[in-house]
Design goal:
Blueprint lengths: L2 H12 L26 H15 L5 H6 L3 H12 L2
Helix pairs in contact: 1-2, 1-4
């Protein structure tokens, strides 16, 4: 899977959790989930669960803590899938 494909899948996973004041177009690879996309911690947990389901991976606590930006999430997913 290419970086672009990871990005598009993540974008589709994240978009339902965006607050009304943030558009899907604002999701960039370097977007910080909490600071820039205004995703609250409860929704971030939902995103993690959706990522696990979509990519058939298990994210550990340290993975979740490291998943600050969309790019971080892509790197973690890629690493988990390559194991």
């Amino acid at each position: 899977m290419t970086e672009s494909q990871y990005y598009q899948k993540l974008k589709s996973i994240v978009s339902p959790y965006l607050p009304e004041d943030v558009s899907v177009d604002q999701i960039q690879a370097d977007s910080h989930f909490i600071r820039e996309l205004n995703i609250n911690s409860a929704n971030l947990v939902d995103i993690v669960l959706d990522v696990e389901d979509e990519f058939d991976i298990v994210l550990e606590n340290e993975d979740m803590e490291a998943m600050q930006t969309v790019r971080d999430a892509m790197a973690i997913i890629e690493r988990k899938r390559s194991v």
